[in-house]
Write a structure and sequence with these properties.
Elements lengths: L7 H17 L6 H16 L8 H19 L9 E6 L5 H13 L4 E6 L8 H9 L14 H6 L2 E5 L12 E4 L10 H21 L7
Parallel strand pairs: 1-2, 1-3, 3-4
Pfam families: LMWPc, Phosphatase-like_N
GO biological process, one term: response to arsenic-containing substance
InterPro entries: Phosphatase-like_N, Ptyr_pPase, Ptyr_pPase_sf
Length: 214
């Protein structure tokens, strides 16, 4: 894997990540495709990262998601589960809470991703705390951009305040959720937003014929 302009430890971590992804997607994608997705994912996070220690791990996680999406788009995989993409501006509050609720309520009966038009540097601490109050841990999530293959792989794209910056592809079902932005808000202010998102996610799951866990 060619990464000559990166620190030695990052290069080693990316090589290890490339091997793991190669084993996971063996027979689905070439080594070149896997390395391209891994390198571009790394570069997307490196642009505004303040702490670089975990960049290779974030790049691996995001590359894995993108490769799963590409496999779905190209018809190389498909288990019939509906896939939903939650998009907001910074992918730090609303879309992360929606992802947390969806994953919690749908279990393994559906797939959800999230992204932002201008990803922030971290998930909103008030959103993390508010979700923790209802037993959902989103502390390990991280703001990330949307990519074309991820949008195309989604059956439903839910937008939350990203306006014209949100991608539009023909044939994809879109919903726009008018939600208050939790950025800069304390936990008391975020709780009603959290609860509103739960109600909307439950309605979305019902429309997809996915039974929600109580």
């Amino acid at each position: 894997m060619s990464t000559p302009d990166r620190p030695l430890d990052a290069r080693a971590a990316l090589r290890t990540a490339s091997r793991r992804l190669g084993e996971e997607f063996d027979g689905t994608f070439s080594t070149e495709t896997i390395e391209l997705f891994l390198e571009t994912s790394f570069d997307q996070f490196a642009g505004n990262a303040t702490v670089t220690t975990f960049l290779p791990l974030l790049a691996e996680r995001f590359a894995r998601q993108r490769l799963h999406a590409l496999a779905r788009v190209e018809g190389k995989t498909g288990d019939g589960r509906p896939t939903v993409l939650f998009l907001c501006v910074h992918n730090a509050g609303r879309s992360q809470m929606a992802l947390g609720w969806f994953t919690h309520l749908a279990g393994d009966r559906a797939v959800a991703w999230s992204g932002g038009s201008e990803p922030g540097s971290q998930v909103n601490p008030s959103a993390v705390a508010a979700m923790a109050e209802v037993g959902i841990d989103i502390s390990r999530e991280f703001p990330k951009p949307w990519t074309e293959e991820i949008v195309r792989a989604a059956d439903v794209v839910v937008t939350m305040g990203c306006g014209d910056a949100c991608p539009l592809f023909p044939g994809t079902r879109y919903e726009d959720w008018d939600l208050e932005d939790p950025a800069g808000q304390d936990v008391d202010a975020v709780r009603p937003i959290r609860d509103d998102i739960r109600t909307r996610v439950e309605a979305l799951l019902a429309s997809l014929d996915v039974p929600a866990t109580a």
